[in-house]
Amino acid sequence: MAQFRTYAVGNLNTIVRQDELSGPWVNISPAGIPAPPPLWMDVMAFPGDNDKVIVVGSITNNANSGIRVSNDAGVTWNTPTGNWAQWGKSFYEVWIVKEDPVYGPNNVIWIVGDAGAVVRSTDGGLTFNNPDQFGAGGLTHPGGGLYAFTSAIHAINSQVAVVAGSETTLLGIDEAYVWKTVDGGNTWQFLNTGATYPAPLPPSLRNNQIPSTVVSVSITNPG
């Protein structure tokens, strides 16, 4: 029977693993990354296969390092191929689709990052690409401008996903934006209806109806 494994990530190239919910936390951080050490921001094990895990984060020293995949519970780490490295070095959240009618279980992975970037794998993390090959750039507001902080994603399958983010790296009270794709990320529908608002407040509390004491929160899992 496969072991139950728990993973956590953090600053200073920190990736740790605990087995069976009771063992010691073991350092499984990847070696060979040039200084300064990366800030890993999110981790997810593959549903039904706890030995396979993916981490994403911010790398300041070189591109093509902000996504790492392990097939052996963190003993070794692989860097995916694909055009994702053209986009930048910082990624904030990863979402693995458990079942997909086209690509099968655990093969579809979505990741969001800097400047409205959304990259996707359809081969279990071997390669990551921007679905439109970066021809249209990152996600944008209808008024124009790239978004610096695409911070959350919830994917249904290889075609349908919802992404949320902000124009700045600090999510403010009027800076929550949401997009949806139904064609694998080739096109995106902007879901905000003329006003921005901090999740999870409902539309009835937008703008002048929002009390001045409300503090906005970071968006997580915007499905």
Your description of this structure?
The protein has 223 residues and is mainly β. It is 0% helix and 33% strand. The protein is built from no helices and 13 strands. It has strands at residues 5-10, 14-19, 26-27, 39-46, 49-58, 67-70, 91-97, 108-113, 118-121, 149-155, 161-166, 177-181, 189-190. The strands form four sheets. A four-stranded antiparallel beta sheet has the order 10-11-12-13, with no helix packed on it. The protein has a three-stranded antiparallel beta sheet with strand order 1-2-3, with no helix packed on it. It is globular, with a radius of gyration of 18 Å. 37% of the residues are buried. Mean pLDDT is 79; it is low at 199-223.
Short description:
This protein is mainly β and 223 residues long.
Provide keyphrases for this structure.
223 residues; mainly beta; four-stranded antiparallel β-sheet; three-stranded antiparallel β-sheet; 33% strand; disordered C terminus
Written as H for each helix and E for each strand, in order along the chain, the element string is EEEEEEEEEEEEE
**Structural class determined from secondary elements:** mainly beta
- Helicity range: under 10%
Quaternary organization: single chain
Q: What's the arrangement of strands in the largest beta sheet?
A: 10-11-12-13
As residue ranges, the low-confidence spans are 199-223
The span between the termini is 32 Å
Number of helices: 0
Number of strands: 13
